[in-house]
Amino acid sequence: MSEKIQKLREILAEIFDLERASALLGWDQQTYMPSAGALMRGYQSGTIDRMAHDMATSAALGKLLDDLRPTAGSLDPDSDDARLVRVAALDFERAKCVPSDYVEELARVAAQAFPAWAQARQSSRFSVFQPYLEKLVEMTHRYVSFFPPAAHPYDVLLDRFEPGLTTAEMQAIFKPLREKQVALIKWIATAPQVDDSCLHQKFDTQAQWDFGVHIITKIGFDWNRGRQDKSAHPFTVSLSADDVRITTRMNPDYFGDSLFSTMHECGHALYEQGFAEGLGRSPLGNAASLAVHESQSRMWENLVGRSLSFWRYAYPALVTSFPQLKGVPLTTFYKAINRVQPSLIRTEADEATYNLHVMLRMEIEIALLEGTLAVKDLPEAWNSRMKDYLGVTPPDDAHGVLQDVHWAYGELGYFPTYALGNLISAQLWETIRAQIPDIEAQIEAGKFDALLGWLREKIHRHGRKFAPQEMVRRVTGSGIDAAPYLRYLETKYRAIYEG
């Protein structure tokens, strides 16, 4: 058996290498590639993705997994080998449903759709992106058709990003969450509004960059194994645990856009940098799911980065970097960065309204998949839902339907993981506070080692060994649950708006 396990590792390592080479091409396209390179980049990405898919669905890999499944049951179920066989078998069964020529075509189409999206967003003209998105939605329908019928076609998309979770289960989690968040927002609307004028002034972009670098260095980002660049939409790409790349963006009129994006992506990177060494070049050297991944980024961005404890530590350095904040009391600044106000842009949304942005996108994706919404009608549908959900109407496409990059890559089914990540982050935070009772005092003192060490031990090092619900249950004692997040919001925002 040991020889077959070793052979399995060798095959999976080569697949991993090809997948990360494709990721590198994607990172380059969003950062440094000349705009005219999109067509050829599409062919390059398509070739590599097809090669990886051919290996991932090969008869040799299937035969090896068939040989290993019966004997894998005799291993310690939590061992790397047992988990590797289980995860590899799941990936193989999913991958073999999808034709190689489809994988290659999707890579080509997405490589051309991204610059079209960027151009459309810059000019605020959805019509520029529309034909590419129509093609990607058509390809999404084809993707769903490759799989056995599910209770809902959206299940097939969701399973790519949040394995094991169904549309019905997700909607059951979101329904009470939405109702209670809407009730909280309505209560906040009756209270005197927080003044956040101190945040909306000119902030030197280089100083923003430098302050963000200072903060993520302090909380644990390893610059020997990572780097940061600029992009239109912040993202993280991992080529290995020793090469994790993040991006951010600068807004000269609002420093928080850069800082909180930087902390968010750093949370993703810390997770990637924390995988156990033995999981490298294998399917286990990935996150448990995108929701678990998002729990890490949202934790550092919000539960840490927007906390009073954090700013008791970081505010003096911020004022040094931006003297225009001198004279602004810490409590005023803290309330300002936590102001609740329905807004247009998801990535700039406050914690109390953020999930509504996600649910809006999820409903649009489901409608596109069910055929009850056409791509050409997306701007109108988007604006209508924004008015219904948040009481605001985008003035143009750039601030509306074109603000997110995900659809340019054909990633329908991705958005729900953002809200699920919020829920998991709060569940983890309640457990952290119980197991590290002085965590707020440590953060206030600028000490983040205990927090990062806890996350490394409980979450990061395991990579994808455990399914997401299993991972959450092992650490917190329950599956994904909205109650801790709702408690967090109620406690935090009633204190801010009643104080």
Describe the structure.
This protein is mainly alpha-helical and 499 residues long. The chain has 2 domains: 2-149, no CATH class; 167-498, Neurolysin, domain 3. The chain contains 20 helices and 3 strands. The chain has a 3-stranded mixed β-sheet, sandwiched between helices. A hairpin with a 2-residue loop joins strand 2 and strand 3. Helix 1 (2-31) packs antiparallel against helix 2 (38-56) and helix 9 (205-219) packs parallel to helix 10 (255-273). The longest helix has 30 residues, at 2-31. It is globular and about 70 Å long. The N and C termini lie far apart (64 Å). 41% of the residues are buried. The model has no long low-confidence stretch (mean pLDDT 95).
How many individual helices?
20
Low-confidence stretches: none
If you average the pLDDT, what whole number results? 95
CATH architecture of the largest domain: Orthogonal Bundle
Strand content: under 5%
Number of strands: 3
Helical residue percent band: 55-70%
CATH class of the largest domain: Mainly Alpha
Sheet with most strands: 3 strands, mixed
* CATH fold-type name of the largest domain: Neurolysin, domain 3
Keywords:
mainly alpha; Neurolysin, domain 3
Brief account:
The chain is mainly alpha-helical. The protein is built from 20 helices and three strands.
Give the topology:
Blueprint: H1 2-31, H2 38-56, H3 59-72, H4 80-95, H5 100-123, H6 126-145, H7 154-161, H8 167-189, H9 205-219, E1 226-230, E2 236-240, E3 243-248, H10 255-273, H11 290-304, H12 308-321, H13 330-337, H14 351-370, H15 378-390, H16 416-435, H17 439-444, H18 449-458, H19 468-476, H20 483-498
Parallel strand pairs: 1-3
Antiparallel strand pairs: 2-3
Helix pairs in contact: 1-2, 1-3, 2-5, 3-4, 5-6, 8-14, 8-20, 9-10, 9-12, 10-11, 11-16, 14-15, 14-16, 16-20
